[in-house]
Specification:
This protein is mainly α. The chain is about 45% helix and about 5% strand. Strand 1 and strand 2 form a beta hairpin.
Length: about 140
Amino acid sequence: MLSQTAEYALRAIVTLAQDESGAATAQHIASQSQVPLDYLSKVMSALSRAGLVHAQRGRNGGFSLAVRAGKMTVLDVVNAVEPIRRIRSCPLRFRAHSKSMCPLHKKLDHALALVEDAFRSTSIASLCEPTALCEEKTHVAIASR
């Protein structure tokens, strides 16, 4: 449902929210969030334009949150990079549906509204547990004799 860009943006924001020690470099964010560095640049530019992160150039530069994690929502992040597109009129432009959408498009828009509400009610801070991002677990095989 979410685009890869939105997923990457959320991972980057959660990474920044978990580490409040100051500005984080793009390399650090990419490493911690497992977002390709080239793609991360595009994502961070969009988040900066939306006012969600500060970008600081120079020796001690990097990225930091411009909005507290408790005030920033998942919807804010998603809308910064790839807004949810609600269905306001018939996407097929049928004249018969000009005043009222068909049941299919009403249902699809209702589902999008539920997603939007869930994202709006989820703060970034609520996603910042010690292991908020998925971590790859290594398993040790025990050989039997």
